[in-house]
Each structure stands twice: as structure tokens, then as C-alpha cells.
Design goal:
Elements: H1 3-22, E1 29-33, H2 40-56, E2 60-64, H3 71-79, E3 86-92, H4 94-101, E4 111-127, H5 135-144, E5 150-153, H6 159-171, E6 176-179, H7 183-191, E7 197-201, H8 202-210, E8 214-219, E9 244-252, H9 257-272, H10 274-282, E10 287-290, H11 292-312
Helix pairs in contact: 2-9, 4-11
Length: 316
């Protein structure tokens, strides 16, 4: 083969290899949610997907893969082809805490982090028929009845679970933990009167409070959230507990930069869309958008924080 043919062949191969990137996406994109349908992450994903479809020109199909506290869904994202056609929500802190506390089938090092979307404060609620009207009511009852009050979370090492443990330490009380596979399950158990307390995120909780299904007693943000201004912080009750759930979008490690950039751009345009902003407020979704560089820095910072916490105060 002469030099001209060699060069032509190389150029042809280069064009063929670049074509999938240049044409991305040319088919539907899967968005994996590692929790049950109807939960806070599922709500964020389905709201987001509708707008990303407009930006990408292809359907964004939300697929729920609950199980093992989120590990099944996170693993499916990691093990997918790194072509941008499978992405998913990763939820802090369980995405980071599970590999710290035990051996998992995924590693946080093997993902491409694209953008953070939501930072939703953890809150504590009771059934609307409950006798408890305040955080102090909970503390008083728990001190008189150690280990009797039950609370539901989305699993060991979840933001909800870590928040409840921090509250127990701060208040000097002992509660009974019941782990569920997703936020929707926790809420159903609370509304059905099967658990005494629900510890989950304020975004969805505020909507249920508006429907007179639950009564939020406190939230764990640094300050009150304007989406639920009547819910006091735990700090106001004298308990320095701050915890939330950061929900961002990631793909398998090694995704082409051009594909990652297209996804990041689609997300950026979505969060800038006035219609999306309005829907997020109504949902409600407490938005906290972080671009690629800031999101990657946040992941590293949080990973180090939870490794230090595990070394001093294991949560299992």
C-alpha cells in the first residue's frame, strides 16, 4: 500500500471513529434512577428529562433501578458503555458512603461527573394525626422511651440516616431505625401510620404537608428554605444538625469530552429555562446547579469528609 493509500485509510478511520461523537445523540438516552418511582430523585429526573429532550433532540428515558440502597442503579451507570447513551442520577451522600462502609460493585472513581442539580435539605415529619407537634416533643418522648420511636429512611448511610444519627447524638436520644428502598416507601409508611417519624427530604415533604398528609417538625438546612418558610431549622430548636441530599448527573468513566460537553450544555440550558425554573418551584425542587469543574471538586470534598466521619464515627 503506497503512502497516499495509507494516509487515506487513516483519515477514513479517523472520520468513522469521530462520527458517533459528532452525531451524538442519534438515539434515545437512558437516565437511571437508583430509587423507586415517585421519590424525590425520580421527580427531579422526570422533570429534568422533559427539558433535556428538547436540547438533545432525542428522548431521555427515565428508568428506575432501586435496590441495595442505590447500589444497583449506580452500578448500572458505571458498567454501561461510555458513549453517553446511559447516564444517571448519583445521590450524595449514599453514593459516597456505601463504598466507604463496605465493598460495592461500583467505585466513585469510575464515573464521569457532569453537573449537580439539586441540594435538598433533610427534614423530619410525623403523620398529620400524630400527637407530636415539635422537635422538643420528639426529644422528650424519646428520652422517656429509649429506642421505642421508629423512624424511616432510604437506607443505611443515606443522607436521611446520617442526619438522624446526628440528631440522636445532639439530643442524647435513641431511636429505632427502619430502612426502606426509596423515599416513596418511607412516605407511604409514614402516611399509613406504620412508622412514627419520617426522615426524608423537604422538597417532597413540603408538598405532602400542603395536602395535610404529614406535619414537618424541622429541617436540617443552614437556614429556612423559601419553598417551605414555616418549617423551622433544627438549629432553631438548639440542635446543630445540617444535612441534605445533593442529586447530580453522571455517566460511566471515560466518556468522550465532546459527549460530556453536549450533556453539560443541555443541562445548563435546562436550568436556565424559565419554564423549568417555574416547574422546579412548584414541584418543589431545591435547585443547586454546579458545572463540571465545581461538581468534580464538590465530589472530592464530600468523599474526604465522609471518610473522616467514618474513621471517627462509623454509621453502620
Amino acid at each position: 500500500m503506497n503512502l497516499v493509500k495509507v494516509i487515506a485509510s487513516a483519515v477514513g478511520l479517523s472520520i468513522l471513529s469521530a462520527t458517533p461523537v459528532l452525531s451524538y445523540p442519534d438515539r434515545p438516552v437512558k437516565m437511571i434512577v437508583a430509587y423507586t418511582a415517585g421519590g424525590a430523585t425520580d421527580l427531579a429526573a422526570r422533570t429534568m428529562a422533559t427539558f433535556m429532550e428538547k436540547q438533545l433532540g432525542q428522548p431521555v428515558v427515565v428508568i428506575n433501578r432501586p435496590g441495595a440502597g442505590g447500589e444497583l442503579g449506580f452500578t448500572e451507570v458505571q458498567s454501561a458503555a461510555a458513549d453517553g447513551y446511559t447516564i444517571g442520577f448519583v445521590n450524595m451522600p449514599p453514593f459516597l458512603t456505601m463504598p466507604i462502609e463496605r465493598k460495592t460493585k461500583y467505585s466513585p472513581d469510575d464515573f464521569t461527573y457532569i453537573a449537580n442539580l439539586v441540594d435538598d435539605p433533610v427534614a423530619l415529619a410525623v403523620n398529620i394525626e400524630s400527637e407530636f407537634k415539635s422537635i422538643e416533643d420528639i426529644v422528650k418522648h424519646a428520652k422517656e422511651n429509649p429506642g421505642k420511636l421508629s423512624y424511616g429512611t432510604t437506607g443505611v448511610g443515606s443522607d436521611d440516616h446520617l442526619a438522624a444519627l446526628a440528631f440522636e447524638r445532639e439530643a442524647g436520644i435513641k431511636l429505632k431505625h427502619i430502612a426502606f428502598s426509596g423515599g416513596a416507601d418511607v412516605r407511604q409508611a409514614l402516611i399509613g401510620g406504620h412508622i412514627d417519624l419520617g426522615v426524608y427530604n423537604l422538597g417532597v415533604m413540603s408538598r405532602e404537608a400542603a395536602d395535610n398528609l404529614v406535619r414537618p417538625l424541622g429541617m436540617m438546612g443552614d437556614s429556612r428554605w423559601d419553598g417551605a418558610p414555616d418549617v423551622p431549622t433544627f438549629k432553631e430548636a438548639g440542635y446543630d444538625v445540617v444535612q441534605g441530599a445533593a442529586r447530580g448527573i453522571a455517566g460511566p468513566g471515560g466518556m468522550p469530552k465532546e459527549v460530556t460537553a453536549k450533556l453539560a450544555q443541555a443541562i445548563q440550558k435546562t436550568v436556565d429555562d424559565p419554564e423549568f425554573i417555574d416547574l422546579a418551584k412548584k414541584a418543589p425542587l431545591p435547585l443547586r446547579f454546579l458545572q463540571i469543574d465545581d461538581y468534580n471538586a464538590y465530589i472530592r470534598q464530600e468523599d474526604e469528609k465522609y471518610k473522616k466521619l467514618w474513621a471517627s464515627q462509623p454509621w453502620n
